């Protein structure tokens, strides 16, 4: 996933915005990322990824699936969690 790809697809929040928020605000809970343009407050698909980023010393270096795979797995997730 590239910096400008959407990490929270529901609210169109890019990976770059999330990483910047984590660096500046240093949230201790995933729910605090809701202050970052609503990230994580929709379908819930991105929350495990938000948590992984928060747990990294250097969140910008975490390997994430490419945008296409990420989006298509979210579609499967949404079918299982209507
Ligand atoms: S993709 Fe982030 S809440 Fe749905």
UniProtKB/TrEMBL annotation:
Alphabetical list of InterPro entries matching this protein: BFD-like_2Fe2S-bd_dom, BFD-like_2Fe2S-bd_dom_sf
Molecular-function GO term, any one: nitrite reductase [NAD(P)H] activity
Gene3D superfamilies per the UniProt record, alphabetical: BFD-like [2Fe-2S]-binding domain
EC number: 1.7.1.4
Superkingdom classification of source: Bacteria
Domain BFD-like [2Fe-2S]-binding span(s) in chain numbering: 8-55
Alphabetized UniProt keyword annotations: Oxidoreductase
Protein name: Nitrite reductase [NAD(P)H]
Organism encoding this protein: Novipirellula artificiosorum
Lineage: Bacteria, Pseudomonadati, Planctomycetota, Planctomycetia, Pirellulales
């Amino acid at each position: 996933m590239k910096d400008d790809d959407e990490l929270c697809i529901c609210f169109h929040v890019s990976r770059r915005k999330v990483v910047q928020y984590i660096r500046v605000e240093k949230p201790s809970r995933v729910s605090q990322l809701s202050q970052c343009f609503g990230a994580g407050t929709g379908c819930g698909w991105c929350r495990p990824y938000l948590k992984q980023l928060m747990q990294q010393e250097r969140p910008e270096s975490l390997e994430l699936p490419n945008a296409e795979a990420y989006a298509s797995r979210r579609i499967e997730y949404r079918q299982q969690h209507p």
